[in-house]
Amino acid sequence: MTTMEREAEQVVETPSDPQTDQPLEKDRSSQVVTIPGANRAVGFAEYGSKSGTAVIYLHGLPGSRFEASLWEANATALDVRLIALDRPGMGLSTHHPDRTMTTYPADVAAVAKHLQLAKYFILAVSGGGGYALACASRTDQLLGLQGVGVVGGLGPRNMTQQGMGLIQRLSFHAMDWIPNGVVGWMWDAMIGKSARNRDTTVLDKAVRKLLAKEVKGPDDDIANDESNIRSLTSSLRGAFIQGSHGYVREASLVVKPWGFDLEDINGIQVRLWYGEKDDLAPPAVGKAMADKIVGAVFTMYEGESHTASVMRHQKEILTALCGLSVNEAS
């Protein structure tokens, strides 16, 4: 057993045997379902309404189910039931080293079946975008799926990189030659060990330092909001609670061919929202993807960053995705 694995065993949250951990089932933020025949679990959380319009939320990279708590207030106001999934190797979801973008719809299908969702939508943010589009390409596996939304989603590597920041471009290309073990070590040094530290103030301090460095200017109010800080801290703790292998697998999948063609997505409404000033997932990428998807609707928020596009337009996004009435969105 590695040092990283020993550390992961010491933390409060562990997916080792979620079926027998009955208290988890009583907590809306820490639920599990097993994938039939796969001997692995998918962790998920629920926020907002308990019986309203169901929206399955796919977190960013790095992230976990707790990220969806950033949307809780607006989900509650709109009577939306947010159901946020942990991807494999993060939070309560069992690590799945052989997973791909196109195997992920099985996780969504398992949760939808477990919760008996007759109709639902999918909403993905940033690094979750590819998984949402994979679901849009596999609607035959997802009975009841009504529409898919992507906010600031990363695009396939062969898509345009116009407007992407230098560091993001280098990160994309570095995955070709930096060994996965080194990537994991780097992220563990940056945030992973802090995430697994039993002293919760360690990660809190690290997150505040990160926000102060990365989120500036017109988005200061977002970065300094205590509720946002708590949500982001919980999300990052979940992302690295099992170690860094979940993140490493995620990063490698983003830069590899996704396993499906955007042109093959049809028969399902897809909406994409991007910030004009986003240099992580630039609007040129979103527009290029929208142009390849039959009937896709692309929206760009003028002057908005990656952070602002996610945080400042939640009511509008949920309203458009779910087809809510003006009265419900007011």
Count of DSSP-assigned helices:
15
Order of helices and strands: HHEEEHEHEHEHHHHHHEHEHHH
Indicate the CATH architecture.
3-Layer(aba) Sandwich
* Count of all domains: 1
Domain AB hydrolase-1: 55-316
Region (Disordered): 1-30
InterPro entries: AB_hydrolase, AB_hydrolase_1, AB_hydrolase_fold
Pfam family, one: Abhydrolase_6
Task: Describe the secondary structure blueprint for this structure.
Layout: H1 3-10, H2 22-25, E1 31-35, E2 40-48, E3 53-58, H3 72-77, E4 80-85, H4 105-114, E5 120-125, H5 129-136, E6 145-151, H6 166-174, H7 180-196, H8 200-214, H9 220-223, H10 226-240, H11 245-255, E7 269-275, H12 283-292, E8 297-301, H13 306-311, H14 314-322, H15 326-329
Parallel strand pairs: 3-4, 3-5, 5-6, 6-7, 7-8
Antiparallel strand pairs: 1-2, 2-4
Helix pairs in contact: 7-8, 7-10, 7-11, 8-10
Domain AB hydrolase-1: 55-316
Protein name: AB hydrolase-1 domain-containing protein
Region (Disordered): 1-30
